[in-house]
Amino acid sequence: MSELKSGKYRVIAKEYEGETIPLEIEIENNKIIKITPQKKMIPGGLEETVFTHLPKQIIENQTLEVDAISGASHSRQGLLDAVQETVLQAGGDINSFHNFQTSKNTAEKLNTLKPDVDIREDAYSIWRKIPENVSKEINTDFLIIGAGISGLAAAVQAGLDGMNTLVIEKNSFVAGNGGGVEGIFGINTKMQKSAGIHVQKEKIIAKEAEMGQYRVDGSFWVDLVNNSADNIDWLVKQGVQLSKVDDYHGTCMFPTFHWYKGGFASEGYVPFMKKRADELGVNFLLGTSAKSVIFDENRVKGVYAQTAEGIIKINAKATLLATGGVGHNPELIEKQGWPTKNLHYCSMPSNTGDGYQIAMSLRAKDMLRESPEFMMNYIQALPHEGVHLYIDPINGFMSLPSGGPVVWINQNGKRFVNENVKKYNLLYQRMAIGATKVTYQIFTQKIYDEITKNVSNAKAVLAEAVEKNEGKSLYKSATIEELAQKIDVPKKNLVATIKKYNKFAHNGRDEEFAKEAEMIIPIEEGPFYIARLDPSNLIGIGGVGSNQKFEVIDDDFERINGLYISGMDSAMQYRNVYTITLGGSACAHNVNSGRHASINAKSYIETL
């Protein structure tokens, strides 16, 4: 083995969304003895957790095989890459640092539990296992797994009801995906009445049933709509701040969207709900992720959870899954039927479908294939860094790749849908694309300039994107024939498609898909562009079957005792596509399900 040269080494660790942190790594006597961040970090934050906990493991075991920290995959990898770079600079053999001396308390060191119910699939059996080593045991009445929108609503309600409650959250902060939520649905609220807005509830419910093709149990919608005003009044009473009510950029059929202060729940909802939960005596364990469920005597009795110090056992009389859906788990997204090639994730990396997998290990009713993903389009060559891609003014879910006065073609060079289908539902922009092998968008410079007219430097952004062409996803040409050659679609078909489309434009009538006349702009004057439309996922909605008490149910619609579900892990009122035309209904469901799961769990606990 090569000898490490002693000294102090300065390296840079890369983090999430392009952030970096400088490190000083000291080597002495052929060992790494210090890893010191050269940056002030927020006490108790995820970054501090990574750069204090993991260096201890590296130094103690002289290994790069360290534990994972939920929600910190980018920072963890950045740290390991920086240490590896230091070892190489010091003349060491990097293979000697891959000695697999991992912590003895990791969740992988588990024994098989002999279940008294069948396990649905081997893939989920790990969620029904008992760890070898448990460092601590905790007792509580009500356990909430996840501290996003629904988890916080459940926590506050449980605190108001005087329940001994514990919330565990795999991140080192509360909010999860909920921080990026912009607003919440409500009908006939005080804000609406003050603004002179009145909508008949039954019209909203009827429209949702129609858009869901009458495939859902409408009583879930009745409950949600009828509870919506009371839920908003309750939130305001807890300190949540709302700013205005409207139709969310004109995308909603009714003005029912109540905006959070500052435009995001991270400012108007999360801090106030966390503060209220603290005031009510709710306990929180951050940096703690559920690893397996405790099931005995035909009921759920809590979970085993991973902390930085090891595995703990949490005994609970009732458990609520509020883990935020499956939006960052490619295997589960593929299970829904979505392709994941070139998929851009807008969700938190920690959003891996833990609640769904726990429920499936208990043979819960599997609704994943019928549940919608908040799936949109993006163009890989255009700027797309970060979780806020969905609101990007050029590459976002309401801009260039979302459709409109452009042409979409499939792998055969033929149109296949009304390109302005987002008019009816923003999420429709990705639905028909799922039926193609690949989809390309054709537009002209004039069309691009009109779509991006309010974006400074938009022309320069496009020019640079064409030049760099990340993912070979964007081409510019003087003729349609040349476009066909660049993407290898039948030239004859593409030329015929554009010729026919231009005829529709001049006649003011789309004879194939009835796109609005004002959206049929001729593709005649170059330069011409063609871009591949890849998937961009914001969040998953649903996956686990439940009843109206938000109890998890099995295939026979019987409850699994002691197990509740809320937020994006549930949402029984949707099928396949999120009806965003009722803006904020997912957030309304999060609050409603969190509150009422808590209320119903209290009643259940009282029967034990």
Automatic annotation (TrEMBL):
Query: Which species does this protein come from?
Result: Liquorilactobacillus uvarum DSM 19971
Q: Where are the transmembrane segments?
A: none
Listed cofactors: FMN; FAD
Q: What reaction does this enzyme carry out catalytically?
A: dihydrourocanate + A = urocanate + AH2
**EC number from the UniProt entry:** 1.3.99.33
Q: What is this protein called?
A: Urocanate reductase
**Signal sequence, renumbered to the chain:** none
Q: Which domain of life is it from?
A: Bacteria
Q: Which GO terms describe its cellular component?
A: membrane
Q: Which InterPro entries match?
A: FAD-dep_OxRdtase_2_FAD-bd (IPR003953), FAD-oxidoreductase_2 (IPR050315), FAD/NAD-bd_sf (IPR036188), FMN-bd (IPR007329), Succ_DH/fumarate_Rdtase_cat_sf (IPR027477)
Q: Which biological process annotations from GO are given for this protein? A: steroid metabolic process
SMART domains in the cross-refs = FMN_bind
Question: Which residue intervals define the domain FMN-binding in the entry?
Answer: 15-90
Q: What class of enzyme is it?
A: oxidoreductase
Output one GO MF annotation. steroid dehydrogenase activity, acting on the CH-CH group of donors
List keywords of the entry alphabetically: FAD, Flavoprotein, Oxidoreductase
